[in-house]
Amino acid sequence: MCLRKRKKLLKTMVNTPKQTEVINDRSRYKVLNWGRRSGKTTTFAKEAFITTMALDNAKVTYYAQTFGDARDIAWQIFLDILGDTVVKKNESLLEITVKNIKGGTSKINLKGWESVVTSEKGRGTENDLLLADEVAFCRGFKFYWDTVLEPTLLTTRGRVVFGSTPNGFNDFYDLANTAQNNEDWFYSHATSYDNPYNEAKFLDKKKLELPEDRFVQEYLADFRKQEGLVYKEFTRNIHTFGKDIESTIDKELFIGGVDFGYTNPAAIIDIIKDKRGVYWVVDEYYEKEKTDAQLAEVVGAKEFIKVYPDPENAAGIKELRNRRINTKEVVKGKDSVKNGINKIRELFKQGRLKIHKRCLNLIWEIETYHYPPNKEDRNQDELPVKENDHLLDALRYVVTMDADTRELKDYNAYLNTITWGTEQKITNPAR
User: Which residue from 113, 221, 257, 401 has the least number of CB within 10 angstroms?
Assistant: First the structure.
């Protein structure tokens, strides 16, 4: 699009100063770290408008966290911005066809991130522009961006705009750092105060009402640990590992944890316990609509030395034992969840729980597993919110039953007293 025509189109839009700043920049990679109601989704729609007008047969794909979000939040915003350029729309598939200034048409598709995670939708397609919304809340974002979505820009030399409100120190935090330290990228930070259409008095009131970390992260777009996290001890650079470490693990036991599921994902966790009592999570299985029998087949193929399954699924345990899998009992009584959580936290503190970087779903669960918000009428010892915890449950079964209480209380002393199938004492690595 020539500069004159582009400026004419931009003048028809009413933009906040931050939106104008973003739209005027032509960097191939843009990262918008914006607080709530800063106008992020509207900015995405305006980016889509410019690209679909400028290129004939342009292809633009917008990803929300879920398909429902794309429909309920973004769909009408896109239609409003595109206005009378729309020549066709499909509300079931969330597809919009517009007439461009070249005399032809261009297309915009609105999708949910879960379609990428569950079936790698988008692989093999082409895009002139990708718009990724609420990146901080998209499971396994970096992996699927690298392997599925970024290649769709290769032939077209297309652009991408990443945007989100922060949600702890995850993939979006890494993207923000990349943008700020790379001359070829564009980085924008906006607080809720930067949108002149937001009421400053309301924001000032929320600042007084909300815990500081929550307000600063949600409205000021400052990276903080997610409020109420169960596993605050977990840090990626300490507790995750890659291929370079995997081959050096001194394997002692190969253990499996199993959480049955059909509507909810079934989860299997593969753990190597080494001779110093370190638990190395080397792989995960996370699939919906698997029967107990199908899951038992998967477990059997892994050849675990022993398996700790969800004790509440008697039929599933029977399927495991029918296949001669060494199935151990998991005691699930009063406070078993809290006790298991405490054991996992202690392992993180001791640096004895390591997770392979390929375990995207487990890492995602760890980074989002949280307690309910504090309320005056709520006891402080409530259990975490029961969601996104299937692999964590499988991990908890293993740690609860296998981790010796002595070694958790004093790991260094424990190392000086144990033997692992041999008379030779293990040397204390802390010395």
Answer: 401
Indicate the fold that domain 3-220 takes in CATH: Rossmann fold (3.40.50)
- What are the pLDDT digits (tens) for 385-424? 998 899 999 999 999 999 876 666 666 666 565 554 433 3
Residue 87 in 3-state DSSP? strand
Q: Residue 111: enclosing H or E segment and its boundaries?
A: strand 105-112
**Residue 205 or residue 417, greater confidence:** 205
CA dist 17 and 195 (Å) reads 8
Domain(s) of CATH 3.30.420.280: residues in the chain: 236-415
Q: pLDDT-based confidence at 4, cuts 50/70/90? A: low
Task: Tell whether the model's pLDDT for residue 325 goes beyond 60.
Answer: yes
For residue range 129-161, list pLDDT tens digits in order: 999 999 999 999 999 999 999 999 999 999 999
Rounded to a whole number of angstroms, the CA Rg of the chain reads 25
Q: Which residues of 136-166 are buried (b: 16+ CB within 10 A; e: fewer)?
A: bbbbbbbebbeebbebbbeeeebbbbbbbbb
> What is the reported pLDDT for 65?
95
Nearest to 22 by CA among 12, 32, 10, 13: 32
Measured between alpha carbons, how far is 283 from 130 in angstroms, rounded to an integer?
30
Residue with tokens 């309301």: 202
* Residues 127, 121 contacting (CB under 8 angstroms): no
- Separation between Cα atoms, residue 238 and residue 253, nearest integer Å: 22
Q: Tokens standing for 341?
A: 């959580």
DSSP 150: G
Q: Give the residue range(s) of CATH 3.40.50.300 domains in the chain.
A: 3-220
**Which H or E run includes 144?**
helix 141-144
Count CB atoms within 10 A of the CB of residue 211.
Answer: 13
The residue written with tokens 């293993």 in the block is 398
Q: How far apart are CA 82 and CA 50, in angstroms?
A: 9
419 and 252 Cβ atoms separated by less than 8 Å: no
pLDDT tens by residue, 279-289: 999 999 999 89
Query: What tokens were used for 108?
Result: 């915009």
> Pairing between strand 29-34 and 185-190?
parallel
Residue with tokens 């400052």: 222
